[in-house]
Each structure stands twice: as structure tokens, then as C-alpha cells.
Amino acid sequence: MAESRSFPAALNDQIANEFSASMQYIGAAVHYDAETLPRLASFFYRQALEERGHAMMMIQYLLDLDEAVEIPDIAGQRSKFDDDISPVRMALEQERRVGEEIYALFQLARETRDYRAEQFMQWFVKEQVEEVALMQDILNVVERSKDNLLLVEDFIARERPGEDGEAGAPPQAGEG
To answer: How many CA atoms lie within 13 A of 122 on its CB side?
Structure first.
């Protein structure tokens, strides 16, 4: 990476990406809520809160270092989809993209020898592996159950995917 951007500037960009991902998950949740699939809707509302939380962790990190925080404008997101599989496909693509963004931030921290930033980003690297795997699992279940999404509702009720919490997560701005 021949980029000369500072880690704080790049992290501010990622804050925008995390808020945008949060809003897109709300769009997916709204789709499933409108289809009377409350467990899928709840799953995506929870994912939206998680992404918002990631942005708030990044904000707190910048505040802790006395760095400028830029609160981004967020473009509108999709809430209407052609079918009931598309929101999950979109979510998997989004998690893969966010993963690449996180890995690039980690690389920037390493290349600029910003050891604090590298340490901070380690949790996010681990988290993205889990998030991609979770969305792939949900997509697998939705695709297998596409003719009866009530089976997905049962799966979510039984397995409670994504409800493990975020052990070891950095603190969020506004938590205390």
C-alpha cells in the first residue's frame, strides 16, 4: 500500500462504512418485517445494532487518542428486494466487503507502524471472519428453505445465530 493516508483518516472512512452497513441491515429487516417473518427481521435489526456498535467503537478509539471524529452523511439503503433470498445475499456480500475494508485498515496500521491501531484492529479482523461465516450459514439455510421460509424462522428460533455477543469487544462511545 503506497498510500500516505493516516490511520485516523482511514478509520473515519470506515466509520461511515459501518453506519452505512447498519442502515442497510435495517433495510433488510424492514423487508422481512413486511413479509411477516419476524425472526429474520429481528436477526437483521440485531445485525444493524451490531454494525452501529462497531462504528461507535471506532469513534471511541479516535476520541481516546484525541483524534478528530467525522460523523458521515449516510445515503439511503435498499428496503425492497425482488425475493426473500436477496437480502441475505446482499448481507453476505456486504460482510465480505467490510472484511476487505477491515483487512486494509489492519494493513495500514501495520505498514505505518501504528501499534495501537494494529492492536485495536485485531478484534475486528476476528469479528469479520465470524460475520462472513454467519451470513454464509444464514444464506445456506434460506436457499435450502426458499419454498417455505417458516423453516428459516424455526432455525433462527432454535439456533439463535449471531446472539453470542461480542466478547472482548473494544468499548463503544457513550457506554460509560
So the answer is: 9
* Number of domains, the chain: 1
Note the pLDDT tens digit of each residue in 79-90. 889 999 999 999
CA-CA distances (angstroms) from residue 86 to 83, 91, 108?
6, 8, 33
* Nine cell digits for residue 2: 503506497
| CATH code where residue 132 lies | 1.20.1260.10
pLDDT in tens, 21-37: 999 999 999 999 999 99
**Size of the chain, expressed as the number of residues it contains:** 176
Distance in angstroms (rounded) separating the CA atoms of residues 121 and 57: 11
How would DSSP label each residue in 66-114? T----PPP--------SSSSHHHHHHHHHHHHHHHHHHHHHHHHHHTT-
Residue 115 domain flag = yes
Which of 65-69, 74-78, 98-102 has the weakest average pLDDT? 74-78
59: cell is 469513534
